[in-house]
Amino acid sequence: MIPSQRALFDLPREVTYLNAAYMGPMTLAASTAGADSYEKKKQPWRYDIQSDFFDVPETYRSRAAQLFGATADDIAIIPAASYGLSTAALNLDPDPGSEILVLDEQFPSNIYTWRTLAQACDVSVRTVSRSDNESWSEAMLAAIGPKTSIVACPQVHWADGGQLDLPAISQAARLQGAALVLDLTQSLGVLPFDMDAIQPDFAVVAGYKWLLGPYSIGALYVHPQHQNGEALEENWIGRDKSEDFARLVDYADQYAAGARRFDVGERSGFQLIPSANTSIKQMLDWDAAQIAETLSAKTLAIAEAVAPLGLNDSTPERAGHYLCLSLPNHAPADLVKRLGARQIHVSQRGDRLRVSPHVYNDEADISRFVDALKAEL
Ligand SMILES: Cc1ncc(COP(=O)(O)O)c(C=O)c1O
Question: Which of 59, 87, 244, 250 has the smallest count of CB within 10 Å of its CB?
């Protein structure tokens, strides 16, 4: 179990932040790394081409790879989950008449991408729903069949916290010859990810939530079988020998190795990458399995404390770090706002209160949350 890491963050004692699924706070160290990098832009001669354009982003690539259990060659640097999902869609060619499977109320970036591909390829997007007692895994496994060409889903559903059995889903998809595209934004880094057992075609993560990184920087895992694919854009740095600034107009037909061709333009992100590097290093040091165990204990303590107030978690196979509580009928419609006024920060998704703690939360946060609920309900 990881003890509270609150001292590494700028979290005043009177604030209870239980909203990592919406936006994680950066550590003080990550924020300083970003600020230092902003300072440098005032004096551009201080940039070192090899280091700032190439080595620092390569550090990011290697650290992101460790989160996925992949190698640096398998990772592209992307600005948003939607960018990685669009790259996946560009490189998949589903048979006309086939089906792309998504979950009911899945995050929009992982829906619109497939609607657009479906229109272009004459395939349909099929929404997989679950009944109250059914898990997302059961519903998805029942839906995968001979018509399935792509399974596009998360590891943890953003609105109810249900966790999917990705090794089983991967195996079922493979049996049908279907591709697997994952959005790991609500799980990577805080839940172990078994790359060997899952082997997705593509997997994305946005870095500003659980990974505690800056906004607008994420990562895309690309299975080696797709690494010769087509990029969304043709940027100069994604080509072979782009390190040689004097010879950039000796245009290169060859791309840089591995998944680097899929990097977003200006991927060296001088202000973003240094703080993202600091954040991911910290996440790797804490270790996903340790974080998962720690956050499971926190959500369990919260669930037990709020149950007598009529707030219940009923999601089958709930992920340990994620708690989505159904509210009693008498709960005020503006409960989240009222809690916010008391400096208790949570989200509402659908008709549930989403509570998402991280390693900085402690027992005092849990007590403050429970006391505020008692006062508002
Ligand atoms: C599951 C999931 N995926 C992705 C995102 C962010 O998407 P994007 O990076 O495309 O803005 C969110 C944000 O809430 C999310 O919950």
Answer: 250
pLDDT tens for 172-199 read 999 999 999 999 999 999 999 999 999 9
The minimum-distance atom of ligand 1 relative to the CA of 206 is: 9
- Residue type (1 letter), 304: E
Nearest to 139 by CA among 313, 324, 316: 316
Is residue 21 within 8 A of residue 347, CB to CB? The reply is yes
- Ligand 1 center to residue 83 CA distance, Å? 11
Which atom of ligand 1 is nearest the CA belonging to 109?
A: 10
b/e map of 173-201 (b: 16 or more CB within 10 Å)?
A: beeeebbbbbbbbbbbbbbebebeebbbb
Ligand 1 contact, 102 CB (< 6 A): no
The reply to whether the predicted model has a pTM over 0.90 is yes
pLDDT tens digits, 231-283:
999 999 999 989 999 899 999 999 999 999 999 999 999 999 999 999 999 99
Report the distance separating Cα 180 and Cα 151, nearest Å.
5
If you search the block for the tokens 């657009």, which residue do you land on?
A: 116
Query: Do the Cβ atoms of 204 and 183 come closer than 8 Å?
Result: yes
Beta-sheet strands, E only, within 12-120: 16-17, 75-78, 99-103
* Other CB atoms within 10 Å distance of the CB of residue 156: 27
Query: Rounded distance, CA 115 to CA 112, Å?
Result: 5
